[in-house]
Amino acid sequence: MNFKRVVNLILLIFVAITLFTLVYKELKPEKKVANPPPPASVVSPKVEKSDSECKDIEEPKKEDLKSEYPKEKKETPKSEKTTKEEANEGKKEIEVAQTTPLKTEEAPKEEKPAEKIIVYYFMTTTRCPSCYKIENYTHSCILDKFPNELNSGKMEWKMVNVDEKENAHFIKDYQLFTKSVILSKVVDGKEVEWKNLDKVWDLLSDQNEFYKYIENETRNFLQGAK
User: Fold this and answer.
1) Is residue 181 part of a domain?
2) Does the pTM of the predicted model rise above 0.85?
């Protein structure tokens, strides 16, 4: 019996020791292990390249250089006909240059001041047979005797009604008191001379004399305007 007790006691002691060791391991703090230093970097030795290896573009071969240059074209000799034709063309050009006269610049012509004669017939709104007769005789004489002057613009025929407001100033300008025929000389748009043909009323009964009077007075006035 004593032997069994001893064995049991030994077992209990063994179990207690194992439990104690297990508890001690769990409660014991773990030691931090320092990270090992990184291995030193291995520096590869620099290898210097030669000048020929550093070039980006390879030097062309001699055969390639020969192919890049254009081949010289051999000029074919011109035929005798073409050379003769060129010589003939050259002679023709020389002859034309000798025969054509040189253009000379003409001196600018002096422009005369623009002059014209205006044949006015002044009337009113109220008209009589004599008024119409003076108008018709004067107008027909101017058309018959001075066609060139009318066409060139050197002479102009105008009928003016002095009863209209815009024409009232002519009464003072030409001292009008009845229907009248006025010759006006205009230079560069400005009147420089005028004449009242006041005999139209006296010659109204004779158409031929009326025509002669209008023609002579107008022609003399026109010649003075030249």
Assistant:
1) yes
2) no
